[in-house]
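Example (one chain per record):
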Amino acid sequence: MNKIFSGSIEKESGLRKYMIAIFNKMFLALGLTGIISYLCSSSEQVLAIMSGGFSIVLMLATFGIVIYLSARINKIDSEKANALFWIYSALLGAFLAPVFVMYTGESVANAFFTTAIFFGSLSLYGYTTKRDLTSVGSFMTIGLFAVILTSFVNIFFLKNSIIQVGLSVLCVVIFCGLTAYDVQKIKNFYNDAHDEEGIKKIAVIGALNLYLDFINLFLAILRLFGNRK
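Predicted structure:
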């Protein structure tokens, strides 16, 4: 009985360390993204490059890294996965620099703190709830693809500002749901890991998922409530 109790405590302690490591990695990546974005936005020459065709290169590069990490995580080592994660965070910071220049510093700060409150609350819910959020995650994922498709149609054909506002509202709802779902999923992944290397690789994917949830939630809130310069 004591062995079972002791093993349960040890497992719970390991889970907490695992989750803390993932959140630390995610917030460090957000910091790196913010620093790179600030440095790029401080240079008119760099901004001119980012606002041109090079932004497409950055977009494709970041998209490619996410696809590669998701598809190859079981076949690459944790050090390579970590390196790709940091590269991705830096490249996204450069890609987002022209976006942040469009808004006042106060708007960016307010959107960040609002996102942090939403993200923290939903992360806590996802970690503590006993409800299975799989159906929520599936529904939100389908909604995300629908929003992406509608966004492309609106950008290139409709160009309707009201539709864009509606899509931003939907993005807030979707990424709130995905945050809770991803935290629960990451927590459950810990039970399926068989060795330390596996835990490290799962931690990278987990940090990437939460990082993307935070960034997309932040951008949606900024588009809704941010004051443009």
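Caption: The mean pLDDT is 90.
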